[in-house]
Amino acid sequence: MELIKDGKRIDGRSFDELRPIKIEAGVLKRADGSAYVEWGGNKVLAAVYGPREAQPRHIQNPTKAIVSCRYNMAAFSVSDRKRQGPDRRSVEISKIVSEALDRVIFTEQFPRATIDVYMEVLQADAGTRCTCLTAASVALADAGIPMRDFVSACAVGKVDGQIVLDLGKEEDNLGEADLPIAIMPRTGEILLLQMDGHLTMEEFNKAVTLGMNACMKIYEMQKEALMKKYTGD
Amino acid sequence: MELIKDGKRIDGRSFDELRPIKIEAGVLKRADGSAYVEWGGNKVLAAVYGPREAQPRHIQNPTKAIVSCRYNMAAFSVSDRKRQGPDRRSVEISKIVSEALDRVIFTEQFPRATIDVYMEVLQADAGTRCTCLTAASVALADAGIPMRDFVSACAVGKVDGQIVLDLGKEEDNLGEADLPIAIMPRTGEILLLQMDGHLTMEEFNKAVTLGMNACMKIYEMQKEALMKKYTGD
Amino acid sequence: MELIKDGKRIDGRSFDELRPIKIEAGVLKRADGSAYVEWGGNKVLAAVYGPREAQPRHIQNPTKAIVSCRYNMAAFSVSDRKRQGPDRRSVEISKIVSEALDRVIFTEQFPRATIDVYMEVLQADAGTRCTCLTAASVALADAGIPMRDFVSACAVGKVDGQIVLDLGKEEDNLGEADLPIAIMPRTGEILLLQMDGHLTMEEFNKAVTLGMNACMKIYEMQKEALMKKYTGD
Amino acid sequence: MLSEIKRDYICQLAAKGKRVDGRKFDEPREIKIEKGVAKNAEGSALVKLGDTSVMVGVKMAPGEPYPDTQDSGVLTTSAELTPLASPTFESGPPSPEAIEIARVVDRGIRESKTVDFKKLCITKNEKVWVLFLDIHVLDYDGNLFDASSIGALSALTDTVVPAKRFEIGEDFKLEVEHYPVSCTSVKIGSAILLDPSLDEETVADARLTVSIDENGDIRAMQKGLNGSFTLDEVKSIINSSKIKGDRIRELIK
Amino acid sequence: MLSEIKRDYICQLAAKGKRVDGRKFDEPREIKIEKGVAKNAEGSALVKLGDTSVMVGVKMAPGEPYPDTQDSGVLTTSAELTPLASPTFESGPPSPEAIEIARVVDRGIRESKTVDFKKLCITKNEKVWVLFLDIHVLDYDGNLFDASSIGALSALTDTVVPAKRFEIGEDFKLEVEHYPVSCTSVKIGSAILLDPSLDEETVADARLTVSIDENGDIRAMQKGLNGSFTLDEVKSIINSSKIKGDRIRELIK
Amino acid sequence: MLSEIKRDYICQLAAKGKRVDGRKFDEPREIKIEKGVAKNAEGSALVKLGDTSVMVGVKMAPGEPYPDTQDSGVLTTSAELTPLASPTFESGPPSPEAIEIARVVDRGIRESKTVDFKKLCITKNEKVWVLFLDIHVLDYDGNLFDASSIGALSALTDTVVPAKRFEIGEDFKLEVEHYPVSCTSVKIGSAILLDPSLDEETVADARLTVSIDENGDIRAMQKGLNGSFTLDEVKSIINSSKIKGDRIRELIK
């Protein structure tokens, strides 16, 4: 399949164009904070509970809160039904997302506590981990968790030899490289970075710059969503 | 298959006739209380342990005892061998049986305790949940657990358009409705009620009356079994 | 298949001959004690951790240490790949090995503690349980655990009607009986004894004597391995 | 303690014929149903019952029939009480609560012949459609039985059988033959409250779910919790379930 | 503490050649065997060894052979220490104790050729009978190894292969070719006690199970617990197992 | 506390350009690779990275292809952090750490086309070779990512496809087409240390694993731990990974 034709991608986007994104804060009643994100064909819900006492006690950290994330896909979120319960992919994503979010939370303010972040993928296209991180960050802010910065995420990839932003599903399946990245937008520090496939040094440099710039755009949308909730606009 | 012929059911019973029932109290050495019930082709053993300290501690209720029931089928109790461990059906039955028995026990007399009721189906015909409840109630009395009433149970169903008591196996498989019911015989209050299939309002009224009357007969047999044990008759 | 020909076994050994054995003590950095044993085609690693506080607390024995053994086969240790996690065979071997080792350790010196013995089969031929016991015993000594004696183990079997020492793989698969045995070499007391197959009384007497004598040879090799480590020879 | 105080307050209100949120005893909360919300599913629905929110998705694939029903499709129902939905829900294997909900919904569809599973046979004795119904609880403010059951029925009405994807003919709409609607009531003291909120559910003595079809016939019942009902209470609950169910049915269709 | 006092008492009695329940050292408890107790099983037996009660059922179904024995039926043995049977047994996955019992019984049947599994081949390389042997412990008063093993052998002698149900010919009786009988002894101090009761088992140092066939040959052995035996003790246990096993064999046949 | 003191000590040394064990910042520990150590495996390797010791085995068997890659062999990678290897490793299902290592190694092989899985197709749409790669950690002194990844690549170069055993032709050597070498660095304060020891890993802020092939191209990256990197730090790590990887590649081949 030809993924790039006449300088356009298979869904008509240009190389550095994001898919349509919609972010909403505070969408659930019971959770302490929540967010809903639609990103291309992804639909993701994130909820935050805490800080609350970590249970059982022996997992408590006396100097800081534990940030515990759970990435989960609904059975019907993908074309071939996913069986209930965490598979190995979900376990890995939960782990690296926990590590990324831990960095931006003032965990030292809540010793012995846990801050639980639950992310449910209701409809999956390519890029669910970046969508989830983006939603989780908004949900944390909505929950009033003290944070030193946001987390904004986006993937870059290589398709038909070309570095392109925010891979769609066919691009993800058939492309030559995938590089999800998450940053703290105020400082530009990198919180999450993975890469699979094949990139020359030059391509990597181009990709990472493209991705980091996109993260800044995501950051603006995240702020806007929170603003909208609190101003009721 | 024709389930009713010449006003008689497939096993020769009339519409409001129970299958043969045998109840024995105090049949196990190690258990605090026990009972064995044969009901048609069902063979069921119930054992009670407790009140004993609930473990682990965090499950203890400081105001009352927990009533914890476990319904289990032996692998060889059914025609197609059942795999070891609780399936979803067993989990559901354990839950609703726990709820029914909880109501009749003076749980407030035993804070922080657990009263464990184990029910093993050794041979299964239709109606194992009612057989188990009946056995459990006798085992609780045999264990000397203070109770405000008994639990007596029986199923009613619809077969070939006719409301009939205490479904047999073919009737259960091919019938149009199944309605297990358990009551407190002294007050007539309903502790367990489930229904699957298709009943008109009128049929429901007829069925529920038939079932509650049968529960009263079961109650007499339960009392007799206990009497027999304690008088050694 | 003919397993014995011209008074020799399929691998050329005589009836009372052990396979080549190599024992090395203190081979791992992190473990408190360790040993590596090659025995015919078996390659086994044993590690000891402890005495350390038993966790969770409710498993602690206030009068003595728990000896907890885990026998595990690497997925690639056998011809048909073994799935990860303990199968029923591993659970049984772990249990009987724990019981055998418990006897020789002065467990009463370490109340509330656990002494953990981990045995990994990296390459399996027949006789892994005896190889593991032999390795575990050396690892315990290497960890400085106070012991009242060693544990030395060896299997005997019946092949083509003949009692032979230390079964090889084909002999184990096609033989008529297998009898693993472990003793305390200083007193000759029997710590582990299993038998499958078919032995007359006379054959049993012959087999058990052959096995116990072999255990004494293993004991010499175990002592030598420890000596070699501590003298640096 | 808190639950005792809450219970007293709800009982006192009930004695005056009132509920915490101002509803009448037999008045359900507002119901919103949105279909087709999960495009990778064969059918889906998002149901809101007040602040309770449940998403249900249907996935279908060819598979083997059960040995005892060789000419019928297979229904497999699961419920996941995701930890998003409540501080008391935990990750891990399905709780008894989740299993009970899944099984009650499953029987409600299966035994009441909502779908004619014989029409989901592909090759007798060999290949049939397996219909996976997954209930995903997103926000828990009481009465999951009704939210799940309404969600399941709505998702079924939205379902297109993906025959083309599996190269067994043209896609076709799943036919829903009956519309049994589940209505749940709880008993608190002597009051019977329809569609309980979380607060009401927490302090309730007994629960009864009744499923009534478009002809006014009973298709399923499930009693829950540690309390008891009198026969008269059961009959009265059945009656109000019938009346309220008729209105909800219109929303689903 | 209690176990120390119990141990002292049992040891003092043993020093006088006595046991708590008045039995001789080499005297088993009364054995009752009832066959055919579970009619949905292909074969079954309820065994009582004093107050220990174990039910064993055999189920059979066609299945695939193991890759290395393409012409033989398959044996699958499980033991469930149901929580009915003892305050110390818990629900959940099989404990190491349950697994050891199942495996010892399984080997006792398999390795001693109790049943000729070649006769359970249906179509070589393709289809064979799978024999599921399920041991269900109902009341635990010591010596589960013997109760389970005797129950298993009894259930096998009761088994009719359900060929008709699976449309592969006429039903036929399972042929039992050998009758190895398992006898368990424990060592307490210097005393060796046959068929230990729960009290004796609890304070025992070492356990030895020996299975002897109708020709007086050894078919299986399993040593257990943290203590040790001398070679002479082992030989003496084998001898008394042979003598007592002969009597038990008559009850099973 | 201990970890704070350890961290301070390591940071102070780093400020002077030094490491606890005397290595330079970009100097890996001694690497020893021994192939063919597990004769029941199709290929195997024991890798020592200083005192870290990892054994990797390859098993192969015919199996079914994935539905979306009908003409390709299947790779299945597992890692077991055996409790031998560290006082903090526990028995039981794989930890998130074990899963991450297995998945990073798996992607490193799969996505960088180390092996051409199309050559492991036996019969299109039906039968392909399944390659099981099992990583067995024996002694844990830091940097399992590199030890596992180097072990996996080494075991693959040792692998002979056992076609004869499964009666599908003659055995043949597995062809390894690329040699991507994984190099891991950690950041402690402002220092970047290659091939961290356990002590260094324990106090590190962030970790970055980079896999570079024989052409100097990037084949995989994985960032870990709770800290962050600047873009310059990332680029500098990539550079030193390239240089050190070239030397390690010679050892593997």
Number of strand elements of chain D = 12
Radius of gyration of CA atoms of chain A, rounded to a whole number: 18 Å
CATH topology type of chain D: Ribosomal Protein S5, domain 2
> Treating each run of at least 4 consecutive H or I residues as one helix, how many helices of chain D?
5
- Most extensive chain contact? A-F, 32 and 33 residues
The CATH homologous superfamily name of chain D equals: GHMP Kinase, N-terminal domain
Keywords:
heterohexamer, A: alpha+beta, 5-stranded mixed sheet, 4-stranded antiparallel sheet, 11 strands, 30% helix, globular, D: 253 residues, Ribosomal Protein S5, domain 2, 31% strand, elongated
Account of the 3D structure:
- The complex is a heterohexamer, with 3 copies of chain A (233 residues) and 3 copies of chain D (253 residues).
- Chain A is an alpha+beta fold and 233 residues long.
- Chain A is built from 4 helices and 11 strands; from the N terminus they run E-E-E-E-E-E-H-E-H-E-E-H-E-E-H.
- A 5-stranded mixed sheet of chain A has the order 3-4-5-7-6.
- Chain A starts with a strand and ends with a helix.
- The model of chain A has no long low-confidence stretch (mean pLDDT 95).
- Chain D is α+β, with helices and mostly antiparallel strands and 253 residues long.
- Chain D has a single domain (21-252), classed as Ribosomal Protein S5, domain 2 (2-Layer Sandwich), CATH 3.30.230.
- In chain D, 28% of the residues lie in helices and 31% in strands.
- In chain D, strands 1, 2, 3, 4, 5 and 6 form a 6-stranded mixed sheet that branches. Chain D has a 4-stranded antiparallel sheet with strand order 10-9-11-12, sandwiched between helices. In chain D, strands 7-8 form a two-stranded antiparallel sheet.
- The longest helix of chain D has 22 residues, at 231-252.
- The radius of gyration of chain D is 19 Å and the shape is elongated.
- The termini of chain D are far apart.
- The mean pLDDT of chain D is 94.
- Chains in contact: A-D, A-F, B-D, B-E, C-E, C-F.
- Strand 11 of chain C pairs antiparallel with strand 12 (218-224) of chain E, so a sheet runs across the interface.
